[in-house]
Amino acid sequence: GCGKHYIKEEELEKMILSFIGSLDLSRLKISGSLKASFEEYRRIASQVLYKQNIDTGDNINIRSYSKYLFEEGSGSEKREFIRGLGITLFLYNKKIYPYTLKTNKENNYI
User: Fold this and answer.
1) What is the pTM of this model?
2) CB 85 within 8 A of CB 34
3) What is the DSSP string of the chain?
4) CB of 62 within 8 A of CB of 30?
5) Among 99, 89, 86, which residue's Cα sits nearest to residue 31?
């Protein structure tokens, strides 16, 4: 074989969601289009939950939006979300790494 490792789409999506969960989102430069789509999601989700007398608190955030997108969104919506985070990711040995990987790999992968 050529030494290439394959990964199922569902497994990759779970890894991406885990990676997003580990990020300090306050330090990211999220794109304007991602902010706009997130605000639309938050507006609609808040309205739906309000009509059902459910207090949303701080539960509608970019992480819940990412989970929603990776469960319900199209492939292009998922790609746009990842691009909108402003982080280049790569996959190596079935692990996701940010492009700014340091030499100490033990602490920089998910």
Assistant:
1) 0.73
2) yes
3) --------HHHHHHHHHHHHHHS-GGGS---HHHHHHHHHHHHHHHHHHHHTT---TT--SHHHHHHHHHHH--HHHHHHHHHHTT--EEEETTEEEETT--S-GGGS--
4) yes
5) 86
Q: Which residue's entry shows tokens 């402003």?
A: 86
C-alpha–C-alpha distance, residues 58 and 49, integer Å: 13
Distance CA 110, CA 91 (A): 10
Beta-carbon contacts of residue 78 (< 8 Å; ≥ 6 apart): 13, 69, 70
Q: What is the pLDDT of residue 29?
A: 85
Determine the average pLDDT of the residues in 15-28. Answer: 87
Q: How confident is the model at residue 104 (pLDDT cuts 50, 70, 90)?
A: very low
d(CA 24, CA 43): 23
Does the structure show a pLDDT above 70 at 109? Answer: no
